[in-house]
Amino acid sequence: MDLSVSIKSAKRNLLIVFLAIAASVIVFSTAHAQSPTQWEELEGDVSLFIGNDLGRNGYYDQKPIAELMGKMAETIGPEAVLALGDVHHFGGVKSVNDPLWMTNYELIYSHPELMIDWMPILGNHEYRGNTQAVLDYSNVSRRWVMGGRYYTRVFSDDDSKVSVRIVFIDTTPLIDRYHNSPTYPDVNNQDVKAQLAWIDTTLENAKEDWVIVVGHHPVYAQTKKDIIEQQDMQRNLLPILRKYSKKVDMYVCGHIHNFQHIRRGNDGIDFVVNSAGSLARSVTPTEGTVFCSPEPGFSVLTATPEKLSLSMVDKTGTVIHKIERTHK
Predict the structure, then answer these.
(1) CA atoms within 13 A of residue 57's CA, in its CB half-sphere
(2) What percent of the chain has pLDDT over 90?
């Protein structure tokens, strides 16, 4: 047999095998992805997207997840995106003109359906830079709508009369280790007692059908990060959440870069960790874990008068876990 023909034949066979394997990988990776028809089932009278730990200058899974958010928004039509901190890794921003606003945000979340209100809070990485610039960016970008370091907004539907209150809080100052650190220069300037008093009063006066508190750091989570962070959150925030447990339905955060759903005690609050919209991390169950996943992605929060739902969406557009609540 001609050796050159044999070599060509072997190469051809290897190419066929390679293409077959590649095709099977593609089919496997997309086989479970949901379609716009299935996404329609997520719609509510009030619909919101939740994203956090986003800013990686478009690297890792940030760009494809941003595009997925836009595609799903075409079907679901969210009113706003709740951006729960760390839109900017790693050192925050220096000013409203920092190029990171383009590479972490504007040029990444450019889908027409994402030209809606983005309602952010500060994460620990924003505190590494100029936090006032993050607030002041509301004067630059029409869709960056930040009501303060902590603030509250009510979303409602005129037809169904459902109302949802989102209470945005600033968690970095609630954690002791961030204080007196040159890495987080703005933390010491914050009045922790004033914020906690505001949270208490806001929840006391809440009359809406559904109440969700959102922050960057978890109250409960499995993590390799310093457990003292959670202990400080449990010391400062948890007593207030428990005080109004008949009103508060969920506490939703980021920071840990994976999906977690935890329930502890008898207060009935769902504690949710929303995964990173770029680079995710491994996770294992902990006390009270209902669900956990290392997948990157974002969440869809929807409400009707009868039901509040939070759907965790992975980077293929698949709902991998859904939390549903009816009235207590």
Answers:
(1) 8
(2) 86
